[in-house]
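Consortium newsletter contribution from the modelling node. Members have asked for a concrete example of what our holo predictions look like. Here is one, prepared for the nickel (II) ion complex that several groups have been discussing at recent meetings.
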Amino acid sequence: MTFQPLWQLRAQFALRLSSMYGQEVPAYTTLVEVSAAVNEDFLARNGADAQRLGSIDRVTAERHGAIRVGSAEEMAQVARVFAAFGMYPVGFYDLRDAAKSSVPVVSTAFRPTDPEELAKNPFRVFTSMLAADDPRFFDAQLQQQLQEFIGARTLFPEELLALADQAAEAGGLEEANAARLLELATAAFKLSEDPVDHAWYQKLEAVSAVASDIGGVSTTHINHLTPRVLDIDDLYARMEARGITMIDEIQGPPRWDGPDVLLRQTSFRALAEDRIFRFEDGTVGPGALRVRFGEVEQRGIALTPAGRDLYDRMVAETDRRLAAGEGNGVRVDVARTVWEEHLPRTEKELALQGLAYFTYTLDEDALARAGHTVDPDTALETLIEAGLAVPAPIVYEDFLPRSAAGIFQSNLTDEGSRDDAQAGTDYDITVMSRIVGRTVADPNDLYQRQQDASITRLREKLSATLTV
Ligand code: OOG
Ligand code: NI
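And here is the predicted structure:
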């Protein structure tokens, strides 16, 4: 019997979910095929440079999933399941205020946090919890009904939770237990064939289609599973050429002639899926729901808080110019102009200005040319400028609230309803940590730690202070 460490369990979990979801949503399989072709062609065009933001093996296998749960209790349970795959909560996203329409959820993402673990398999799941206690969306009676409905269901059977705890504790499982864990964990995210209570579903849908997708059914399911591409513009064009209509624009940064930062995403609209309903007269019959969609992403360099401020200002500036009627209303064109005016054009410049995260390695040849030694008081900046310290980008492993809201929103046919005269309930990263039962990491701390570790190695090698 071979012992399966967490990363192997994670890699298999991602594969299992992918094949299950591909059977449920055939268009996803098309998306994966087109993504693979885009990546192969990109690699052929760009050679070794293509792999600066991750090896082709990692990128080809890379997925993020999105799931939605209904209560703090369910969130705590799903956190236990993900811990069995070495996936831990990172980042807090409040989509209630990020979206114009009614999106009553708060979210985190479960993912590996160590660079080596990310390199082995970076599977991550954006996980949203219904803010069922927020009176802007749900009145007292609906809150009560939601609590009862969600409280009465079991998303994750005891056997799954026990095996998950065992895996997390031991850092893996023996083969037979591993197989059982994978079977139960995958099944927990399968689209249910249970009849959907039509009246209840519609009642929630009037508030928000997201609320009905979460609280209107007896189980949870994968909402989408997202492959990563190295050229999202190429992907977009190829999908449209195949007759698959994508949302109007790619979310996040524009395509431009400089470093890609953060995350660019796009999706195709939710497709009608057959579901069984139980109607008010007691009859059971077929119907359809449109909640699951296909999404694809391209990842760029992680930004420091200073870089993120600049990004936010550039987004605001893009909004301002668009509102003023510039660029014929085409966001990406306006954004590209703003990017060209404000964002450094090279990774080296991003590094020197402290706008993005990098790991630094020593160029031994450059050191030899410099006489094998550097001044002990040298600043890191000087070494970067002289080409002795070579920055390698740290890829952004997280999400963008505005894009997430845009993705949610582009798939809602209805605005839903919300009463902004009411005060919303308070959620933040501390509250989320309490809910999931472990500290939700701040993504910047993780990137900073990785960058610092590389600088420490340089310091030791060069016996220099390398002030930053
Ligand atoms: C999650 C939407 C957010 C992303 O990639 O930003 C997301 C959802 O629809 O449940 O997945
Ligand atoms: Ni997504």
